[in-house]
Amino acid sequence: MVAGDYHGTLGYSKTSFCKLMLRALRLRPGRPARVLRGHPWAFLGEIDLTLGTPPADGDHVELTDLKGRCLGAGLWNGRSQIAWRRYSRRPIPLDATLLEDLIKSALKRREGKLVARLVWSEADSLPGLVVDRFHDLLSVQTLTLGMEQRLPLILEILQRHLRPREIVLKNDAATRKLEGMDAYVRTVSGKPLEPSWMEVGGVQWRVDLLGGQKTGLYLDQIEQHAHVAQWAKGRRVLDTFCNQGGFGLACARAGATSVLGLDSSEEAIQAAQAAATRNQLAARFEVANVFDWFTEHREEVFDLIILDPPPFARSKDSVEGALRGYKELNLRALRLLAPGGILATYSCSHRVTEEMYLEVIEAAAADARREAIVLERTSQPADHPVLVNFPESRYLKGFLIEIRA
Ligand code: SAH
User: Fold this and answer.
1) H or E stretch at 398
2) Which domains does the chain have, with CATH numbers?
C-alpha cells in the first residue's frame, strides 16, 4: 500500500490531504521525546496543548515536530499518559480502509498458522489491538480507546477474512483503566461459549477463552514447548510456573521418566491435570508458590528444569528487585540439577535485556559452583514480531543451559 492509494481514492492532492483529513498536534519544546527517535508513543507531557482545543479522545491525530514535520498519525487519548500511539508514518486516518490493510498485513505475517497471535498491537501498527486465533475461535482485546471505538469495523473485517465460529472480547486487562475504559468479557454473538479441546503441538488443550488467564493459552511459548521437549527423553522434568503444563506435557509426550509441574493458579493446575488425563500422559501437577517450593525441596534431583516466571520487572524501579528474584530462582534450579542436567530458563520482562539475564545466570552458576554452558539462546516467536525502536515489543528471552557433570 502506498500513500497514493489514499490520495487517489479520496481525490485530495498530496499537500492538502493531511490538512483536510487529520488534526495535527505538535510536540512541546525542550522535551527529548522518544518519538523523535522512532518510538511509536508520545506522552501527554511531551505534547503542546496550548494551540487550541485538544482532539476528542480516541481520534486519529497527526503529530509533528517543532518545525511542523510529520512524525506520523496516531490514536489520541488525553486521559492516558501515553496520549498518542502511532499507527502510520504518514498522516492518514485510521478508517475502515486502513484498518483492513493493516489487519490483512498482520494476517499475512502469520499465514497458515491455526493457533497464533494474529495481531499484536504496535508491532503490527495497530496500537491496542490484540487478536489471538485458536483454530475456529478468536480472542480479541482492545486496549486503547481508539481501538475500542473502532471495534465494530474490526469485528466486521475479522469475520469477513477468517469466518470464525465465535469471537470472544477478552477485555479484562487492567491497562484498560489507564485509557478510561471498563473491563468486560463476552462473546460477540452474546451466546455462552463452553471450553473446548483443541490440538496444539500434538497435545490436546482445554481452551477456555471466557475464563482462562491471558487469552486462553500462552501462545508465545508454544514453539518452545516442543523445542525443549527434544531434551526430555529419559529425564526427570520439573516444569515451574507451568500454567496449563505446556512444557511438562510436551516433555511427558517426548518420553520423560517423570514430570512435575508447579503453578500458583489453581485454575491453571486443574487445566493441566485435565490435559494430562485427556492425553493419557503421566505427569503430576501441584498448586505451589515456586519460591516456597524451592525452599522446602532442597534435596530433590531433576535432569531438566524449566523456569518460566511471569514478568517481574513491570516498571523501571522494579528492575533491581526482578534481577534478585531471577537470580534466586536460577540458583535454586541449578542446585537441583543432576550432572549433565539442562535448565531452560526464560524472562519475559522487556526491561531485563538478554545480556542482563545472562549475567543473572552467571551469578547463579557462580554461587551454585556449577560449570554451565549455554547450548542455545532463544527468543520470542514470529507471531510476536519486534518493532524496531519499540523496546517494549522485544520482551521474551531464554537460555538453554547444560550443567557439566
Ligand atoms: N510456562 C507457561 C507460561 C507461564 S506464565 C507456558 O509455557 O504456557 C507464568 C505463570 O506463573 C502463570 O501461570 C502464573 O499463574 C504463575 N505464577 C505467578 N507467580 C507464581 C509463583 N510465585 N509461583 C508459582 N506460579 C506462579
Assistant:
1) strand 397-403
2) 7-88 (2.30.130.10), 96-194 (3.30.750.80), 220-403 (3.40.50.150)
